[in-house]
């Protein structure tokens, strides 16, 4: 844990490093040993075209002043894209873009001081008894008999799980339920606030999502009769048969259930005191979840889905490099598509590796506990 004194020492060295890189001369008052250490330090950094100190590895912006560090942590944690996500996701997002000593500790301090995180941890609804049953089903699925090593999908948007959360407190817009959906490969989530959990609402939600993202096989553990009703509605709307199926698919059901829990927990931090404006916050939390690094895949759902990072509000405020201009020549577009395909392939391979590593770790942990 970096103390204030250590942080100030580090900031001083970084200020000196910037001077040395910019002017080619040492700041005044340094002894021989300090100059030698500064020469070593400067190998890790460079000054970009806007005069900012950045790391050579990863091109991360070096934030030297403590006040600015605190502001950035607060913006990422609370801001439009942050939506009060937890410590790990906030640290990962910061560490991918910024550099200073003690980022993790600053995030912990920020979250501990964050009134919304400290005070609003109550769920926005009282837990229904069915949640206990659902938890038991999920716990069963977690047992070592489950096929931990298999990944049933090999690409994005092949298979998604769907869940219905609620009843929640009725909002001013008349919404009472949340329909959630999660892509099994990328972990890309979708969600919508709806007034009821009717087959019509679910069919409308699925149509809206599929018209935007493409058609996909949907799995749910909802009642079979309900599933038939949704299919009938979808068939009437777009002629697609059996796009949603009832299946006890432990991975899909567990994944979407976990996302539902995360969404509900995060909503509980940002709702007003009457807890009736939760539907106003769904989109910003979705954006935060989509653009944060996922614990298992070690990649953000956004990057897996689109093959590029999303631009966040913090990037617009801090990035010294402007987004590159889009190619205008037809050949450039072809090259661009080719590059994107390669990049997506590379990302998908990385995801498979990371998921496999996470599964091996989980299996080892379980085997150890069984011994
Ligand atoms: Zn917070």
TrEMBL record:
Domain Integrase catalytic: 148-309
InterPro entries assigned to the protein according to its UniProt record, in alphabetical order: Integrase_cat-core, Integrase_H2C2, Retrovirus_Pol_polyprotein, RNaseH-like_sf, RNaseH_sf
Composition skew (Basic residues), residue ranges: 360-371
Annotated region described as Disordered, given as residue ranges: 346-371
Record-level Gene Ontology MF annotations: nucleic acid binding
PROSITE patterns recorded: INTEGRASE (PS50994)
GO biological process: DNA integration
Name the record gives this protein: Integrase catalytic domain-containing protein
Source taxonomy: Eukaryota, Metazoa, Echinodermata, Eleutherozoa, Echinozoa
């Amino acid at each position: 844990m970096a103390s204030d004194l250590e942080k100030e020492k580090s900031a001083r060295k970084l200020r000196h490093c910037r001077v040395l890189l910019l002017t080619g001369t040492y700041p005044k008052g340094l002894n021989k040993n300090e100059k030698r250490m500064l020469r070593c330090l400067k190998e890790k950094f460079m000054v970009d075209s806007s005069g900012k100190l950045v790391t050579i590895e990863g091109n991360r912006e070096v934030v030297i002043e403590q006040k600015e560090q605190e502001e950035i942590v607060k913006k990422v944690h609370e801001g439009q894209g942050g939506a009060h996500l937890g410590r790990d996701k906030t640290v990962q997002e910061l560490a991918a873009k910024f550099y200073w000593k003690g980022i993790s500790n600053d995030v912990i301090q920020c979250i501990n001081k964050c009134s919304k995180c400290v005070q609003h941890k109550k769920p926005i609804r009282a837990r229904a008894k069915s949640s206990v049953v659902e938890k038991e089903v999920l716990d069963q699925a977690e047992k070592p008999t489950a096929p931990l090593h298999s990944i049933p999908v090999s690409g994005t948007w092949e298979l998604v799980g769907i869940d219905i959360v609620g009843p929640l407190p009725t909002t001013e817009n008349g919404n009472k339920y949340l329909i959630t959906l999660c892509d099994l490969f990328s972990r890309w989530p979708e969600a919508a606030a709806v007034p009821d959990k009717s087959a019509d609402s679910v069919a409308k939600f699925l149509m809206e999502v599929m018209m935007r993202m493409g058609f996909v096989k949907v799995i749910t553990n909802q009642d079979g009769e309900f599933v038939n009703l949704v299919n009938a509605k979808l068939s009437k709307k777009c002629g697609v048969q059996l796009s949603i199926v009832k299946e006890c698919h432990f991975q899909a059901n567990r994944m979407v259930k976990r996302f539902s829990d995360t969404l509900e927990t995060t909503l509980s931090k940002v709702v007003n005191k009457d807890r009736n404006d939760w539907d106003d916050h769904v989109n910003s939390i979705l954006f935060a979840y989509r653009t944060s690094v996922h614990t298992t895949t070690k990649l953000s759902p956004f990057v897996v889905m689109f093959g590029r990072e999303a631009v966040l509000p913090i990037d617009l405020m801090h990035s010294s490099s402007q987004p590159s201009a889009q190619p205008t020549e037809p050949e450039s577009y072809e090259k661009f598509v080719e590059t994107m395909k390669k990049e997506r392939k590379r990302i998908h391979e990385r995801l498979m590796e990371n998921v496999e590593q996470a599964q091996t770790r989980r299996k080892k942990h379980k085997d150890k506990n069984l011994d």
